[in-house]
Amino acid sequence: MKSICVLRAAAALLLLVGMAVIAPTGCSDPDLPHADAQRLRFSAQAEDVLANPLWSAAALMKTQRLMHTSTLLGNGKVMVAGGQNTSGALTSTELYDPVTNTWKPAAPMITKRQGHTATLLPNGQVLVVGGSKGMPFHPGNWLVETELYDPVTNTWKQAPPLSPGRSTHIAMLLDNGRVLVAGGMGSLNGFLSHAALYDPVTNTWTPTGELKIARYKHTATLLANGMVLVAGGAISNNPNFTVTATAELYDPAAGIWTRTTGDMNVAHYSHTATLLVNGAVLVAGGAGGPLEGIAELYDPAADTWKLVGSMSTSRPGHTATLLGNGMVLAVGGYYDPYNGNLASAEIYDTVTAAWTPTDSLITGRNYHAATSLGNGKVLVTGGSNNTFLDSAEIYTPVGVGSW
User: Fold this and answer.
1) Domains held by the chain: number
2) What SS3 string covers 56-84?
3) How far is the CA of 14 from the CAs of 28, 33, 315, in angstroms?
4) Backbone angles phi, psi at 104, to 5 degrees
5) CA-based radius of gyration for the chain
6) Quick check: 232 and 185 in contact, CB under 8 A?
7) Tens digits of per-residue pLDDT, 36-68?
8) Does 300 reside within a domain?
9) Is 400 domain-assigned?
10) How far is the C-alpha of 260 from the C-alpha of 281, rounded, in Å?
11) CATH of the domain at 369
12) Global pTM?
């Protein structure tokens, strides 16, 4: 097992107060937003709007937020839910209409949360699971509460709790219509291996096989064969923060996890994983050591990993979105936990296995959300840029028409 231990002089308990991050003595998680040293791009924004026609400003959200979820609903609208800002964790939700370029407040969630998951169910409802109601490292803040959103009635209702409580876990809709939830932060001295299945027909949770390695801030990808690939993440926070290169596969039929034949070439944390049209999985960026711009491909048929072209810059806290042309758009993130965020974006070409810079965001950001709108465009919302953001932007690839 390959892992990289990232030593810090800061504490594992980070407190976000207003615009500053206070880190007591100890070992810290380098992945939380670091507003104290991030830089704004105000001086370049006017030039970016003119020079970067691929990006256009969307209407402002009603609420500033980061570490929220963004879900494309069956009616074509996007629901943004929860997250955090200077008020702490949020219950607020809002709906974006791509046709009118407007945001409208939606019914608030029952429980305030950030670092949760939101999964669109086959019946059109949205399942929200876990998260944290305050400092994510503080015992008692991890949530067992789950809830369901009905877009037709614009209402939330409580779903059965999932114990243990967790945040920054994964949730994946399986081919059988159930939702797999696995891992996350839910233990003061480490992370969770616990996994469970939600059945929307019976509205029940059922335990399933546990991860081989407890982890959080990992990724999950549904493969063409119906299995789920979980990769990377952090595997320890006591006494030191440790990032892993391990990966494992979940078999829904057997309800068990197995390690991939080999580990990834580099440990990844706060990275992205994107299913390509050829069935391979692109894992890119994240924190984990000096090679944070590294990207690699997982081949499900051969059960192997191989390195591909590296991104032009390391960018943990970014997003990666599959475009209609089969390429992958990587956006934003930060280039150092304590020194700034990124407005840059780049495209991965599956033919050349290389990255090419594309036009930059109007506003640099990290811990934002990105959602494919189904018409070839990508909506980017919120995040952090020395402050919590309410701004949103639209990426329109070359050749994609207007609304």
Assistant:
1) 1
2) EEECCCCCCCECCEEEECCCCCEEEECCE
3) 7, 10, 21
4) -135, 130
5) 19
6) no
7) 322 222 223 323 333 345 999 999 999 999 999
8) yes
9) no
10) 13
11) 2.120.10.80
12) 0.86
